Amino acid sequence: MTSTPSPEPSPSSFTSLGEEKAFDRWRRSAAWITGVGLSPEDQTARGREKALAAEESQWRRCEKWKADLLRNSPAVTFMLQHLRYSGCAVTPAHIQCHPCGIRDSSTTKLSPVAGGFSPDHGIMMCQDGFVNKKHMEHTMVHELVHMYDHAKFNVDWSDIRHHACSEIRAANLSGDCTWWREVQRGFFTFSKQHQACVRRRAVLSVRNNPACPDAAAAERAVNEVWESCFKDTRPFDEIY
């Protein structure tokens, strides 16, 4: 008994099947990109994937800018030199890029905080906190001034007057309080803008010190050390 062979699929069947699979792949890809038509589970997975990709991109940008500033920024290299003179040789490992979750990347407004200094851990750069490389440069110099003060003057960070003095110096010397930086923060004035910026930022920073009981104490500490610390531009000859 002979069996009847199955009919061969026509070329048009292959084309239809291929087109269907291609369309399916396109549809899934489009859904993943746009978020339309995804299940709640897929939406969550897509959100995590996008957040991780954004974080990776921010970290790479931060590390690239950091390397360039450590080599080429006059203010940064000047601070590094004087830190070496003070017995504190800073390496790239002492300056770390990390996400801080403090700024929406869709806005050009400066975040309140873009970095920090810890005597135990070095300098942290908020990779998601920078508008541009100049903003990062000012932040790096600000934190290097804190590091310099710690190495040179043995600052007691639990003493809010010590902290206030270093914050005044860092805001004054880093470029944090240029006119254009203040405009980006939403402050616009022509009269004593620099001094007002330095004072405001110092008070805000001291207020966040766990040893500071309230805003009034932070303001008092800044006022008490203002005259001597604002005039102290070391290691710079003048305000940067």
Structure explained in plain terms:
This protein has 240 residues and is mainly α. It folds into two domains: 49-154, no CATH class; 157-240, no CATH class. It is 60% helix and 5% strand. It has eight helices and three strands, in the order αααβββααααα. The chain has helices at 11-34, 40-72, 74-85, 133-153, 160-173, 179-185, 193-207, 215-231, and strands at 95-98, 115-118, 122-126. The chain has a three-stranded mixed β-sheet. α3 packs parallel to α4 (133-153), α4 crosses α5 and α5 crosses α8 (215-231). The longest helix has 33 residues, at 40-72. The chain is globular. It is a peripheral membrane protein. It comes from Botryobasidium botryosum (strain FD-172 SS1). Has a dual role in the assembly of mitochondrial ATPase. One of its GO terms (biological process) is mitochondrial proton-transporting ATP synthase complex assembly.
**SSE topology string:** HHHEEEHHHHH
Low-confidence stretches: 104-108
Q: Give the number of DSSP strands.
A: 3
How many strands, what sense, and barrel or not for the largest sheet? 3 strands, mixed
Record the strand order, biggest sheet.
1-3-2
The SS-based structural class is mainly alpha
Global shape:
globular
Beta-strand percentage? 5-15%
Q: What level of helicity do the residues show? A: 55-70%
Task: Compute the average pLDDT.
Answer: 82
Number of domains: 2
Q: Specify the number of helices.
A: 8
CA gyration radius, whole angstroms? 27 Å
Q: What is the terminal separation in angstroms?
A: 99 Å
Topology, pairings included?
Layout: H1 11-34, H2 40-72, H3 74-85, E1 95-98, E2 115-118, E3 122-126, H4 133-153, H5 160-173, H6 179-185, H7 193-207, H8 215-231
Parallel strand pairs: 1-3
Antiparallel strand pairs: 2-3
